[in-house]
Amino acid sequence: MSTILRTLRNLSRIGLKEYGHQMQYMGDTKAGTLVGVDRFGNKYFENMEEELPLRTRWVDYKEKEYDPSQLETGWHAWISYMVDTPPTADKILQTGVRAWELQEHRPNLTLSRSAFKTYSTVRPKYSAWTPVAAPR
């Protein structure tokens, strides 16, 4: 019964459109305050009122097929409870994009067809053994 009440309370607080969006993208509904948006378009929320401890911060990714490596370092530290202040309020983390950082996100290609594969022209030093049965 408490799940139904929580769902109805969140529906009344966030609206029908946002409720549908959260159910489609996150599989759960949450109501909270928008803390900030990063340069990739991900939205960061916080609700300190009625959530369980260490479950008060969450991300609404811009893309449906999200990659967790899309989190910027400052936002990752905030969402993981390493720091208490979000990057929007921290002077050190407001430095912007550094010269050595990529301007756009490069996805993690591990376990995909585009993953790095080694290529060598050298013959291997060992090979697999194939047993040969003697004719009878």
Automatic annotation (TrEMBL):
It comes from the Eukaryota. GO terms for biological process: response to oxidative stress. It is a peripheral membrane protein. Keywords: Electron transport, Membrane, Mitochondrion, Mitochondrion inner membrane, Respiratory chain, Transport, Ubiquinone. The keyword Electron transport applies. Belongs to the complex I NDUFA12 subunit family. InterPro entries: NDUFA12. It holds the Pfam family NDUFA12. It is found in: Mitochondrion inner membrane. This is NADH dehydrogenase [ubiquinone] 1 alpha subcomplex subunit. It comes from Aspergillus rambellii. Accessory subunit of the mitochondrial membrane respiratory chain NADH dehydrogenase (Complex I), that is believed not to be involved in catalysis. Complex I functions in the transfer of electrons from NADH to the respiratory chain. The immediate electron acceptor for the enzyme is believed to be ubiquinone. GO terms for cellular component: mitochondrial inner membrane; respiratory chain complex I.
